[in-house]
């Protein structure tokens, strides 16, 4: 059973539908009591950093997420805003992130008009180290992005990089904690394979 965290900042149905396609059962919940029994967790999200952090606290999910990730070491996958919340903080706001990944979330800022903000569309990822998340992945994996901010990783948790005028960290992995800036639920066979690996390999 995959537990999808509902803190009212994202379209969760598409993630659940993709999990269903690969034969994985899941539940969507904002109940911290249900989250306490979770074996694998997906933390999705779309929107602003501060509102995401505030929502986790509002629904009493902050402490239980820390318990699951840091004490119980349960596999957790952050998606889009969910991946940014794993970091120390963001240029977008003033709230502190979960801090599981030593990274700062920064805003794209280009003088080149060829590079629009937000970054929207398909882009390739380059794997920086071996990972079960990309086990038997299709060649030249590309994923769907929609974001104005990106993770700037300071430790060895950087998993993939993507080029959008420069190379930025598009996925992270540190022990049981994973995050992807892109949307696997919108990335067809590549995203399906990634989610299948999260379900089967962790």
Would you mind describing this structure in some detail?
- The protein is an alpha/beta fold.
- It has one domain (2-201): Rossmann fold (3-Layer(aba) Sandwich).
- Helices cover 25% and strands 30% of the residues.
- It contains 6 helices and 13 strands.
- The protein has helices at residues 13-21, 32-35, 49-58, 62-71, 81-84, 188-201, and strands at 2-5, 26-29, 40-43, 76-79, 89-90, 103-107, 119-124, 126-127, 142-147, 149-153, 158-163, 167-174, 177-180.
- The chain has an 8-stranded mixed beta sheet with strand order 2-1-3-4-13-12-11-8. Strands 5-6-10 form a 3-stranded mixed beta sheet, with no helix packed on it. A two-stranded antiparallel ribbon has the order 7-9.
- Helix 1 links the parallel strand 1 and strand 2.
- The protein is globular, with a radius of gyration of 16 Å.
- The mean pLDDT is 97.
Keywords:
three-stranded mixed beta sheet; Rossmann fold; alpha/beta; 202 residues; globular; eight-stranded mixed beta sheet
Question: How does the SSE layout of this entry go?
Answer:
Elements: E1 2-5, H1 13-21, E2 26-29, H2 32-35, E3 40-43, H3 49-58, H4 62-71, E4 76-79, H5 81-84, E5 89-90, E6 103-107, E7 119-124, E8 126-127, E9 142-147, E10 149-153, E11 158-163, E12 167-174, E13 177-180, H6 188-201
Parallel strand pairs: 1-2, 1-3, 3-4, 4-13, 5-6
Antiparallel strand pairs: 6-10, 7-9, 8-11, 11-12, 12-13
């Amino acid at each position: 059973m995959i537990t999808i965290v509902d803190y009212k900042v994202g379209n969760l149905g598409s993630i659940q539908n993709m999990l269903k396609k690969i034969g994985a059962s899941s539940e969507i919940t904002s109940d911290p009591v249900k989250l306490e029994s979770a074996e694998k967790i997906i933390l999705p999200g779309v929107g602003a950093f501060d509102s995401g952090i505030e929502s986790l606290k509002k629904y009493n999910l902050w402490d239980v997420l820390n318990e699951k990730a840091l004490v119980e070491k349960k596999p957790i996958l952050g998606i889009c805003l969910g991946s940014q919340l794993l970091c120390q903080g963001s240029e977008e706001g003033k709230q502190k992130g979960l801090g599981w990944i030593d990274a700062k979330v920064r805003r794209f800022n280009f003088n080149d008009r060829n590079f629009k903000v937000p970054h929207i569309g398909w882009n390739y990822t380059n794997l920086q180290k071996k990972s079960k998340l990309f086990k038997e992945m299709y060649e030249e994996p590309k994923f769907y992005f929609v974001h104005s901010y990106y993770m700037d990783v300071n430790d060895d948790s950087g998993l993939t990089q993507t080029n959008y005028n420069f190379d930025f960290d598009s996925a992270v992995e540190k022990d049981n904690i994973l995050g992807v800036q892109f949307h696997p639920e919108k990335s067809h066979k590549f995203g399906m394979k990634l989610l299948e690996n999260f379900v089967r390999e962790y």
